[in-house]
Backbone:
C-alpha cells in the first residue's frame, strides 16, 4: 500500500469548492504530519501552495490566494486541500507530500477538472 | 534573477552513467538544502535525493540507494546528481529544487534523462 494515496481525478463546477484528499497509509497517523501541497500546470515545474499540520501550524505560500486552504480529516486519516471559488485556472494537477522515514514522499497526484 | 537551471540530461543505454548539474543564481546557494525530484512522462512526482547546505548530509530514496550520489560545490553554486547503473525506469524529467524550511520553494525547468537501448 502506498504511503500517500490521492484520487486520480476530481471534477467540480466553476465557483464551487473542491476538496482534494491525501490519505495516509493506515499505519501512519495523519495527526503527526505536516502535509505539503503543490500545484503543477502542464509543461511547468510544480509550485508550492501551502503546508498544514494544524490550525496553529500552517503556512501559505507566497502569493497563493486564500481560497486555497489546508485541513485534516482524522477519521479518514487524510489531509485535505480545499479550493473554494473554483476558477478555470485551477484545472490542473495537485500533489501532496510528507516527510516520512527520513525521506520525502509524494502522493500520486490528483487531476482537477473544472467544468 | 533567482533561479536554478538543470543540465546534463541525455539518452543513455541501460547500465550506463550520467551526471546531472543544477546551477543556482540570485541567492546565497550555500545557505540552502537542495533536492532532486523526478517525473516520468505522464506520471507523478517522485523525490530522489537531498543534500544539506554544507554538503555533508545526503539523503536518498530507497530505489536509488547505491546507484545515485548527490553532491554539491558551493563555490560553483552547483548541485550534482551522479547516476550509475541506470535502468529504463529511471527515464524521467529531473528537477532540482531549493529547500526553504522544508518547502520546495524554487524549481528549475528540469532536464530529461532517457534510458534506452
Residues:
Amino acid at each position: 500500500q502506498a504511503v500517500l494515496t490521492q484520487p486520480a481525478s476530481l471534477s467540480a463546477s466553476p465557483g464551487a469548492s473542491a476538496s482534494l484528499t491525501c490519505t495516509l497509509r493506515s499505519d501512519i497517523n495523519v495527526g503527526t504530519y505536516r502535509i505539503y501541497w503543490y500545484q503543477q500546470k502542464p509543461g511547468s515545474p510544480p509550485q508550492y501552495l501551502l503546508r498544514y499540520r494544524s490550525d496553529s501550524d500552517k503556512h501559505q505560500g507566497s502569493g497563493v490566494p486564500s481560497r486555497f486552504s489546508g485541513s485534516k480529516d482524522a477519521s479518514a486519516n487524510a489531509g485535505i486541500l480545499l479550493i473554494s471559488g473554483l476558477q478555470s485556472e485551477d484545472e490542473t494537477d495537485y500533489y501532496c507530500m510528507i516527510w516520512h522515514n527520513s525521506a520525502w514522499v509524494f502522493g500520486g497526484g490528483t487531476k482537477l477538472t473544472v467544468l | 534573477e533567482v533561479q536554478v537551471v538543470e543540465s546534463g540530461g541525455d539518452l543513455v543505454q541501460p547500465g550506463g552513467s550520467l551526471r546531472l548539474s543544477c546551477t543556482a543564481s540570485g541567492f546565497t546557494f550555500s545557505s540552502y538544502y537542495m533536492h532532486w525530484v523526478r517525473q516520468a512522462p505522464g506520471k507523478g512526482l517522485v523525490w530522489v535525493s537531498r543534500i544539506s547546505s554544507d554538503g555533508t548530509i545526503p539523503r536518498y530514496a530507497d530505489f536509488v540507494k547505491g546507484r545515485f550520489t548527490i553532491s554539491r560545490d558551493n563555490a560553483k553554486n552547483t548541485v550534482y546528481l551522479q547516476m550509475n547503473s541506470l535502468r529504463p525506469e529511471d527515464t524521467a524529467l529531473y528537477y532540482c529544487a531549493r529547500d526553504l524550511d522544508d518547502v520546495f520553494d524554487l524549481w528549475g525547468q528540469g532536464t530529461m534523462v532517457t534510458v534506452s537501448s
Notes: Residues 65 and 91 of chain A are 15 Å apart (CA to CA). The mean pLDDT of chain A is 97.
